[in-house]
Specification:
It is built from 14 helices and 16 strands. The longest helix is centred in the N-terminal third of the chain and has 14 residues, at 79-92. Strands 3-2-1-16-15-14-13-12 form an eight-stranded antiparallel sheet, sandwiched between helices. The protein has a two-stranded antiparallel sheet with strand order 4-9. 29% of the residues lie in helices and 17% in strands. The two termini are 31 Å apart.
Length: 410
């Protein structure tokens, strides 16, 4: 299977104005020239053809190593759609129903308790009135959270237990899941949307149901069938691996951070289905084409079309958007005009979202400012890779959407 990443069509053949597409590099070159990004790689495709590839700057500024098409990137939360696909592979085999309580396989979640009031040191809780179900994990409505939110007493409880930007040293996914089950839920399951470790718990569910470690299941059931040979829980090529950067608080310029940057150099104890993968642009491009094709790529069908359609529909009750149903916290996408499916944000109202994209677009991003989206109506996929943590530093994703769609002329 081809893993090369290069333009393989005249942009005009797929409805793009080539000169307008060049605005993408013109715009993001300024980020690099001003030192706000170390480097970047963008890929735009339409109707299965790559119409534009742009790269600039360095994967490792200090070593003088340029961004290349085969650079390895930490994709952080762009792992979540992969985990969601893995779970739905098992769903299609009849392993579970979306409405099944997860305690059937993860008994540690048999009696979850929900925060009611109090402090992180002395929380008052009550029993959950609804079990956590599989679809709650897929939609981030389980009541779980992230320690890095810094917005709720339960977030502080997560941090006190070693869960902020990582997991306790030496704890594997089974142990982390057990510990999460002991912590209070932020709300009753299904009552709200909250970005959380739910996809990590989903990864543990995949392990238990399949009888395989998550890395083995991914490799055998997702990456090998889709030809994603350079994707895994650690880099397969340290010399191609991008360094990780954070903004300097005083200047905003990208500064190397090797403490965070150690992630992905070797396989972690906890195989994080929520954020642990390293990948290449070519590999993730194949993943987006599989999704655009509704579950099939190069004659290999991994999911049925109706399954992909279900995953990329808005599952928030009443069809509302994240602004109405979610907590106003950090997530990898805006809230206005976007709902949430089984592992993806879903654009429900392009006017409310103030975007040129099409309703039905589904997407997600990663903590180091990586992002992707798939627009079935316009048959467009787009990818952006860099390594700047956190992703809220610059409006990269909004700018990329503007620049891609202003170039559509058919």
């Amino acid at each position: 299977m081809a893993t090369e990443l290069k333009v393989d069509t005249d942009p005009a053949e797929v409805g793009f104005d080539a000169r307008r597409l060049d605005r993408i590099d013109g715009h993001f070159a300024r980020y690099v020239d001003d030192g706000l990004l170390p480097g970047y790689l963008a890929v735009v495709a339409r109707r299965g053809k790559i119409a534009y590839v742009a790269r600039r700057g360095h994967r490792d500024v200090e070593a003088g190593l340029p961004v290349e098409v085969d650079t390895r990137w930490r994709i952080f939360s762009m792992t979540k759609p992969v985990t969601s696909v893995a779970a739905m592979v098992l769903y299609e085999e009849g392993a579970f129903e979306l409405t099944d309580p997860i305690a059937r396989w993860l008994p540690e979640f048999a009696e979850p308790r929900v925060y009611v009031k109090g402090s992180a040191l002395k929380p008052f809780t009550e029993p959950a009135t609804e079990p956590i179900r599989v679809w709650h994990l897929l939609t981030h409505t389980a009541g779980l959270t992230y320690g890095f939110h810094h917005a709720h007493p339960v977030d502080a409880i997560y941090r006190a237990n070693g869960f902020e930007w990582g997991t306790p040293p030496g704890a594997d996914l089974a142990e982390c899941t057990r510990r999460w089950a002991e912590l209070p839920l932020v709300f009753q399951p299904g009552a709200e949307w909250n970005y959380s470790v739910a996809t990590d718990v989903l990864g543990r569910l995949v392990e238990v149901v399949s009888g395989q470690p998550l890395d083995e299941f991914f490799a055998q059931r997702v990456f090998e069938p889709l030809g994603m040979g350079n994707t895994g829980f650690a880099t397969d090529s340290t010399d191609k691996f991008a360094a990780l950067y954070v903004p300097d608080p005083s200047t905003g310029k990208a500064v190397r951070n090797d403490s965070f940057g150690r992630s992905g150099l070797e396989k972690a104890a906890c195989l994080s289905g929520g954020g642990g993968l390293v990948s290449t642009a070519a590999d993730y491009h194949r993943f987006t084409q599989f999704l655009l094709n509704r579950g099939e790529l190069d004659g290999v069908r991994l999911l049925g079309p109706r399954t992909v359609d279900l995953m990329t529909s808005n599952h928030l009750p009443g069809g509302v958007d994240l602004e109405a149903y979610g907590r106003p916290l950090f997530a990898e996408m805006p809230f206005h005009g976007f709902g949430f499916g089984l592992g993806f944000s879903v654009l429900t109202d392009r006017v409310k979202a103030k975007t040129l994209s099409s309703e039905g677009e589904f997407a997600w991003g990663g903590a180091a400012s990586t992002a992707f989206w798939v627009d079935p109506a316009a048959e467009i996929t787009a990818l952006f890779f860099t390594q700047l943590l956190p992703s809220s530093t610059h409006p990269i994703r909004q700018h990329l959407r503007q620049l891609v769609y202003q170039a559509v002329v058919d």
